[in-house]
Structure formats: structure tokens, C-alpha cells
Amino acid sequence: MKVLAISGSLRRDSHNTVLARAAAELLPPSAELELFDGLKAVEPYDEDDDVGGGPPGVARLREAIESADAILIATPEYNSSIPGQLKNAIDWASRPLRENALWGKPAAVVGASTGMFGAVWAQAEVRKTLSASGARVIETDLPIGHADQAFTDDGRLADVELRERYVEILDELLALAEQTQETGKLAA
Amino acid sequence: MATAQAESTIPTGIWQSDPIHSSVGFAVKHVVGTFRGTFDEFAATLTDTDGSPKLSGRAKVEGLQVKDQNLYAHLLSPEFFDAEQNPEIVFESKRIERDGDRVVVDGELTVKGVTKEVVARGEITGPAPGPDADRLGIDLETIVDRHEFGLDWQMDLPGGGKTLGDDVTLSVHVELVKQEA
Predict the structure, then answer these.
(1) Residue in chain A nearest B152 by alpha carbon
(2) CATH code for B2-178?
(3) Could you give the ipTM of this predicted complex?
(4) pLDDT at B4
């Protein structure tokens, strides 16, 4: 079972990239985490450019999502909403509807911010756009507030309760991925 | 007289819907208007071979007809019908009662994998001779809360209020053709 993690922040020392990476050791041994490192290279959305698999950065994104059994998005919050480049990537991945990489894809959204609310509004917006794209989105969020103090030096969540909630979200995501695979097998 | 008996009983035998002269659809409040859709691919069967009439119907979610392809895709997505996981809407009656041209059907409706009891009311006409075989008309309507079936999508309107209503009116108008025994 492969989980593709996408951090919505491009910054080198991003808290959300740390949060995405932290999922690796919380997943069961049957699952592996792949961190998508091509978000910055996703071209600006333009329907005129959406021919073939799309421009190179987009093609890479779409292939990464398609080859994953589930996706995990860790989003920061910019001006109470989704970072532009993450929204741009979701917009590309959503086209065309019903044949898109996100269609039926199990997805979970988590988020970190240095404020006290932990990107809770951005997470809701990402869930909304993923759902509108046809993904199967877990409702539970994981707001990591005061992100500059939330992680240990080796990149683990310091708070045990938050770590347990993260495990619950990942378990739910994998269960959904298994269920989706089973139904797919029955339909095939 | 045979006609007097026909007005208070469900005819026996096997009756199947004529797809051309039948329709299955829904209506739901949208902002200030009413949004309607129909299901193009469906089949209904009325069977009474043992004294207990049974009406069953199945509609393919992919047969949904709406006027915009993005809306079509959205309605088939997990936010609404989740067509890949739940390709059909199914109805099975448990009880049918006829009183003249009035009919009440109790049964189980399955949408998006969730089965709920519903009571549908409407009119029944015939049977009467058709060009090929005897035909029976049944028009039924019921109102369901879409949230009971997990169709929970909603969007706040920018000026306040909600985009989509909760109650959905389901309508079935079928012309059933008697099958040869």
C-alpha cells in the first residue's frame, strides 16, 4: 500500500513537510510513504496546456497520484485559505472529471501553522476541493498549532495525543484504501 | 364485473416496464428553484404469481441525465451517489395496497449502499389492452431526506442560506407491459 504525501509548503524547512514526513513511522509496516517533491515544478493551470498528459510538472504530479493507493496532504494556511500552488496542483489533478487522477482516490488532510489554530480552515478548504474533484476524503482533521514548537528535533510530533490522532487518521485512510481496492477488484 | 374487481386488486402475472413510456426522476430545492434530474437506465417489474404482489425497480446511477457534464461528474462522485462503489439505486416493495385508482407502496429503497423504508403514494391505472399486450400504469412519489442516504454535500451561499435542499422528491412513472406466461 503506497501513500503519497504532498506538503503544500514549498519552503525548505517547512513545518508541513516535517508533518508529512512524520507519517512514515506512524504507518503500519504494510504501507510505505512517498513524499512528492515536485510541487514547485507544477505549471500554472491553463486548460490550453492540458494536452496529452499535460506539461512535464503536471504529468509527474498526475502519475504520482495515480500510482498511489492513497494521498495525504499537509497544508499550511495562507490568508485563511489554501496555498496557491497546492490549489493549482489540485486543479490540474482534477481534470478532466471522472478520468482524473484524484477520482475515487482515498485522501486525508492534515495541517500545521505557527498560529494557535493549526491551519484548520485551510484543511477544510483542501477537503472541499478534493471532494469536488471526486476523491474519497476522510473528515477528521489534524490541526497542529504553534508548529515551531510542535516537533522534536528528529521530526516527530512531540504531543502524544496529536500523534495518536495522526495514527487514527492514517489507519482510517488505509482502511478506506483497502476497501476501495476490494470494491475495484469486485467490479473488475 | 371484471373491471370492478380490477379496480381494487393488483393484477396477477408478471409486468415489466416499457422504458420508452416510463420515467424515473428526482426533484430537490436548489437556491430558490427546483432542480430536476432523471435516470435513463432503469427497469421495474411487478410480479404477482402467488397472491402477494411485489414491485421492484433498479436504476443505474450512470444513467443520470443532467444538463452539464461537470455537474454529472460531481453527482457521480463520492460526494453524491458514489457511482463506482454503488452503481445502482434499488427498490423492493413489501406491501402494495390499491383502492380504486389510488395506490400505496411500502418498501425498501437502497441508495449509495444505504437501505431505508419508504412509503410511496400515487395512482394506478388499468390494466387496459395495449397494442401488444395488457398495460398497467403506476405513478408513485415519495420524499426522502438525502442525508439519510449519505448524500451530504452542501455549500453555504455567499449571502447566507444553503445551496441545496435536504428533502428530495422521487417520482416514478411506469407503464408496465404484461409478459406472456
Answers:
(1) A131
(2) 2.40.128.110
(3) 0.80
(4) 44
